[in-house]
Amino acid sequence: MKRKHWTVIIFFGLFIVACQKDDAITTEIEKWLGFVKPAHFPEPEYNLQNNPVTKEGFELGRALFYEPRLSRNNTITCGSCHIQSSAFTQHGHDVSHGIDDRLGTRNSPPIMNLAWNKAFMWGGGVYDLDLQPIIPITAHEEMDDNVANVMNKIRSLPKYQAMFKAAFGSEEVTTARFMKALSQFMIMCISSNAKYDKIIRKEPGFSFTEEEEQGYQLFLQKCASCHTEPLFTDNNFRNNGLGISPINDQGLYNATLQETDKYKFKVPSLRNLRYTAPYMHDGRFLNLNAVLRHYHEEVVETPNLDPLLKGIKLGIELPESDRSKIIAFLNTLNDEHFINNPLLAEQ
């Protein structure tokens, strides 16, 4: 077959894939239900009365989430460091890679179930989701721009004038509307359809295997104090005994300047761990066995070490036999629907 024939075939193949993706997104939008709290989840922390999620607001937020003009040189989007197929993390990088391939100091946290978060980022400092995007937009190693410049770039595009009008009733592009639209997209990034969730909802045909059930019971005994069901985080900041890093990242202390907050970091959710390696705030552990081994034998007593890790020995008793069972349970928290949901994908 001639080369030009192969080119035509490849072109039409890509065209068909793009059309299928657009059709999937259109189908999801047509089924639009807005923000729906999963039945087994607690009430959201986010104030939905101040920013109700609409189809138009969500679509604007999604467009902005994947908009490269949020960065100084128009190359980096929110989706660059928060990739859907990796549960909205930057899979494979220990710390984030931003503009001009600059390195951050922390691992990109997942964007999921943010409506139930009280504070944001590994080291805190932001307690309102509507304000959180300011940090990556202005950070030197992330997007390296300023909000005023980003607003001017967005205002210059007719596409956004129409979308802001559809979402908010007028073409006026304000910082508040910009932030609210991004929040509408982010709080719709709900992960609640893992095997665990289907079992909790008592859906027919779903049950734990023997190993998963044993792992679940071990998890409840040894892990659930910090990783509370059904979100699998207590949303607190804790020192989990990682020790002092070479760059001396002091975690929450950097935001509060309270001595009692030194070396405390946000407790992450354990959902979707299959897609979010490496682990911890600095991405130091490549796999789950290394994480559990840390708690079993590598906990370091630094200032403000969490009391739950202090006892006859530092850490948690997690022999290898327990680790394999806990990992089997953790794998029931992986939500394939979430990472493949066309509603959340870049158009």
Structure, explained:
With 347 residues, the chain is mainly alpha-helical. It has two domains: 3-190 and 339-344, Orthogonal Bundle (Cytochrome Bc1 Complex, Chain D, domain 2); 195-336, Orthogonal Bundle (Cytochrome Bc1 Complex, Chain D, domain 2). It contains 13 helices and two strands; from the N terminus they run H-H-H-H-H-H-H-H-H-E-H-E-H-H-H. It has helices at residues 3-30, 55-65, 78-81, 134-138, 147-155, 158-168, 175-187, 195-200, 210-222, 253-256, 288-298, 320-330, 336-340; strands at 237-238, 265-266. A two-stranded antiparallel sheet has the order 1-2. The longest helix is centred in the N-terminal third of the chain and has 28 residues, at 3-30. It is globular. The two termini are 33 Å apart. The mean pLDDT is 93.
Present the secondary structure layout.
Blueprint: H1 3-30, H2 55-65, H3 78-81, H4 134-138, H5 147-155, H6 158-168, H7 175-187, H8 195-200, H9 210-222, E1 237-238, H10 253-256, E2 265-266, H11 288-298, H12 320-330, H13 336-340
Q: How is the largest sheet built, in terms of strand order?
A: 1-2
The H/E string reads: HHHHHHHHHEHEHHH
Please name the CATH topology of the largest domain.
Cytochrome Bc1 Complex, Chain D, domain 2
Return the domain count.
Answer: 2
Task: Kindly provide the name of the CATH class of the largest domain.
Answer: Mainly Alpha
Relative strand content: under 5%
Number of strands: 2
